[in-house]
Write a structure and sequence with these properties.
Helix content: 10-25%
Strand content: 25-35%
Order of helices and strands: EEEEHEHEEHEHEEEE
Shape: globular
Number of strands: 12
CATH class: Alpha Beta
Largest sheet: 8 strands, mixed
Structural class: alpha/beta
Radius of gyration: 16 Å
Number of helices: 4
Strand order of the largest sheet: 7-6-5-8-3-9-12-11
CATH architecture: 3-Layer(aba) Sandwich
Length: about 200
């Protein structure tokens, strides 16, 4: 295990992480008023915290995961921006209602999200990264399936948009692991679900 002094986080060596004690981890950014995008899926507000040489711990975090769960709308948004899918080196599950053939390490998944997570957590591997969107996050929260939360709060009030958290889900008690503020005003919160 090593300790990242700059970000106050502990990370295991990659060789130490292939275990059945896999965690489902949400790593996401949102506005101070809780939106992850505008109504038209615009993510432009994220650029206000871009800073050369600062990735807010993302590179170290991604080394701790070997599986990514992402909603189809979020996946399509990334692809539509002209980027290659950034997790082609990981097992990726695109949660969708429309069946499509798998492409490389990308599986289009149409069955029960809960069953997928239970199955993934039962086999050895690194942690499981939930990369959005809000529908996927809230489906997982309904079944209390997210173990840890890294939430980067961007210093802006959008006023409207796609809310990270929806109502009509059970109360989930969290323990604060760390909080860190950065020069551009971003505050990153790391919470763990209390079992």
């Amino acid at each position: 295990m090593h300790y990242d002094h700059d970000s106050n986080r502990k990370f295991h060596n990659e060789n130490d992480q292939r275990s059945v004690d896999r965690k489902v981890i949400l790593y996401v950014a949102m506005s101070l008023d809780g939106f992850i995008a505008t109504r038209d899926d615009d993510l432009g507000f994220l650029s206000m915290v871009e800073q050369e040489g600062e990735d807010y711990g993302y590179a170290d975090f991604v080394k701790t995961v070997d599986t990514v769960i992402v909603g189809r709308r979020t996946y399509d948004k990334v692809i539509s921006m002209g980027f290659d899918f950034p997790y082609s080196d990981k097992d990726a599950y695109i949660i969708t209602r429309t069946s499509r053939p798998s492409v490389g390490s990308v599986t289009y998944y149409t069955d029960s999200l809960k069953e997928l997570v239970v199955r993934l957590k039962s086999v050895p591997g690194k942690h499981i990264f939930v990369d959005g969107g809000a529908e996927i996050v809230n489906e997982l929260l309904k079944d209390n399936l997210i173990d840890e939360f890294y939430i980067s709060v961007i210093p802006v009030l959008l006023g409207d948009g796609i809310s990270l958290f929806k109502s009509c889900r059970p109360e989930i008690v969290l323990e604060l692991i760390s909080s860190k503020s950065f020069d551009k005003g971003l505050v990153q919160l790391h919470y763990m679900r209390v079992k």
